[in-house]
Amino acid sequence: MTGTERSPRWTPGDHILWRYRGHAPDLNGRAVHICRPVTVVQDTDELLAVWMAPGTECVKPVLADGTPVHQEPLATRYTAPRTTARSRWVGAGVLKLARPGDPWSVWLFWERSWRFKNWYVNFEEPRTRWAGGIDSEDHFLDIAVRPDRSWRWLDEDEFDQAQRVGLMTSEKARRVQEAGEAAVKVIQAWEAPFADGWERWRPDPAWRIPQLPADWDRTAAQLAF
Prior knowledge:
Layout (H helix, E strand, L loop, with lengths): L14 E7 L10 E12 L4 E5 L4 E7 L18 E7 L5 E5 L5 E7 L5 E9 L3 E3 L2 E4 L1 E8 L5 E4 L1 H9 L5 H20 L36
């Protein structure tokens, strides 16, 4: 079930999981290597918006010895054995916006004082919805967009390395590059969601931080949520 076809609709304040599948069988057999409990802000045919609060317990990939992935040299970053670890999201929270069918999501970052920092375009597979959340696959490439509307590519080296080690086929890389071109046109035209004023949004102070379930890595069909 993808997109909006017979998908569940969530209510503002609901807790769901925002998950990413791994790219290689190096996570002790786990299909999911990133899991973030989030609170639903809006869920319509046009947009899913969720809030990841500061202090949320998440799951992230790490090297087999527990070393953060970004500390591994690029040449072996995607071939060194990995596992997953639980950790708390530090810093300010993140608002994530995803339009059905788009091969990217847009994240908003603030400083602790709610001074808006930037938008972040995360290229990924169009999200698959299930009763307890959404699943996707990260495509390595990103774009940062500043409040003055200037933008720049991020992680191009990781995108290239993923292709070199076989985590991304040439066909998939081509589709990601096309998605990047499409996203740049949206940014340059300052269309939704950039023009929609989400940087002025604030979470409901009554919302509690969602909990990370013990079975966070189960398949959507198996997960009891």
